[in-house]
Amino acid sequence: MRRIAVVGGSLAGVHAAEALREHGFDGDVTLISAENELPYDRPPLSKEALLNGMPMERLSLRAPEWYEDNAVTTRLGNAAVRLDTARRTVLLDDGTTVAYDGLVIATGSRARRLSSTENAPPVQILRSIEDSLRLRERLRPGQHLVLIGAGFIGLEIAATARQLGLDVTIVEVGRVPLGRALGDEVGAWFRALHARNGVEIVCTCTVEAIERLGEGAVLTLSNGRVFNADVVVAGIGASPVTEWLDGSGVQTTDGVVCRSDLSTSVPGVAAAGDVARWYNPLFDEEIRVEHWTNAVEQGRRAAHTLLGHGEAFSAVPYFWTDQYDARMRFVGRASAASEVVVKESGDDRLVALYGRDDRIRGAVCVNAPRELVRYRTAIRDQVRWGDVTETPSAIGG
Amino acid sequence: MGMKLVLDLDACQGYANCLIESPGLFDLDDRTDKAVLLDETPAEDRRAEAEAAVRGCPARAISLESS
Q1: What does the pLDDT look like over A253-294, one tens digit per residue?
Q2: Residue A171: beta bridge partners?
Q3: Average pLDDT over residues A181-186
Q4: Does domain A3-110+238-306 have CATH number 3.50.50.60?
Q5: Could you tell me which residues of chain B have a Cβ less than 8 Å from any Cβ in chain A?
Q6: Strand ranges, E, within A222-309
Q7: C-beta atoms of A293 and B15 within 8 A
Q8: Measured between alpha carbons, how far is A273 from A289 in angstroms, rounded to an integer?
Q9: What residues contact residue B25 under an 8 Å CB cut-off, 6+ apart?
Q10: Which SUPFAM superfamilies match (chain A) (predicted)?
């Protein structure tokens, strides 16, 4: 193997390139990115970068010299549009091709957009640095921000906007925020957190119409309420970027279908990060994980697999979100849980556990990092549900 | 040659990822909400854990040097 192409200037892509070099691969490494910037970190885009602005040097995952020092060739501003696995080439949107012997698919996901009507004002999304900068310009004190969707991105933007002095309303189709991800109990806790900070979350409700009014909009909700918004942002989830793989023979079903070692249906092709769907033996299910740490570790694992050192990827997913003074960390899986137990709940603290098949599968900890460590170990060791729910959670200190 | 963990407290944002990746090497200070390095020169058999902590820090506040 002489040439490895990494498609996606993403967290997973950078870590794949880094792991290739760490493993002694001395052939060509080409990193292809649809974005114009060197790969950067996304979590701050809805938080610190939106609140205070952040220079590109701090957002960049690696300094420009790193790419030179590691002989990683970058093709920035060039989206991959087609993959030819017979000829082993990637076609880019400028008409050029990149030939490879090994390929890492790390194209990530893109924010879903509302299906918009013709005279609807632009509803913003937040995924890229451009999105963040554009939104930052619009977040002025005293204005009314309406967020569509009370998922993690929406809630983080809400918290940032409150700190910037805006009035914030969130419209959510579910019964509570984060309900689909974390269940009603934890969702209700987050709704109360935002209510204490002056954010109204209108639940079980959709936006029926959005009409332009000056720079802003008039929104009509399904419950009959009508109100004005200066800024409208949709945070309604993300979809894996896989269209460029159509016809390539790489199997996709809501993401790239991977084996447990992140290899795909085509030899010499592996996938990592948001785009990869793989079988996680720890949870006995096929999952796709859109988390930061997962992208780091899968990028590395995909590189190892290409170099012939594949092994099953069985990490415990880990995720965080910071809103106001609440630092929430989540480990494991909640979506398929049949049991939820709230161990501790107060204004500034929350510990909730998720179980299925008599095993602990997930844990939410707000401002409780040591509990998180303990439950992460319990999930990895597949501790019995009764053993974690019946013991007191208080840990000294 | 051993390894030496270095924690940059100015860069630390209190994410607690290090504590999650390698609980024996890091803790969190409840007052400052910043990481605490418990073992600056961990034994060689903890290299994987130490490297995971370095990679897992979104603030890039941890580095690993040879000692």
Answers
A1: 999 999 999 999 999 999 999 999 999 988 889 999 999 999
A2: A148, A202
A3: 94
A4: yes
A5: 14-17, 19-20, 23, 27-28, 30, 55-56, 58
A6: 226-229, 231-234, 238-240, 256-257, 269-271, 276-280, 285-288
A7: no
A8: 7
A9: B5, B18, B37, B38, B39, B42, B46, B49, B50, B53
A10: FAD/NAD(P)-binding domain, FAD/NAD-linked reductases, dimerisation (C-terminal) domain
Report, as an integer, the average pLDDT of A89-100: 98
What lies within 8 Å, CB to CB, of A376 at 6+ separation is A316, A318, A331, A332, A363, B20
Confidence of residue A335 (pLDDT cuts 50, 70, 90): confident
Q: A129-234 adopts what CATH topology?
A: FAD/NAD(P)-binding domain (3.50.50)
Choose, out of B20, B28, B32, B38, the residue to mutate when testing the contact with A (most A CBs < 10 Å): B20
Q: Looking at beta carbons, which residues of chain B come within 8 Å of A320?
A: 15-17
Query: Which residues, other chains included, contact A342 with Cβ-Cβ below 8 Å and sequence gap of 6+?
Result: A185, A186, A350, A351, A352
Tokens linked to A106: 């790390």
pLDDT per residue as tens digits for the range A76-88: 999 999 999 999 9
For A376, which of B20, B28, B58 is closest by C-beta distance?
Answer: B20
Largest CA distance in chain B: 35
User: Domain ranges in chain A?
Assistant: 3-110+238-306, 129-234, 325-389
Domain A325-389 has CATH 3.30.420.40: no
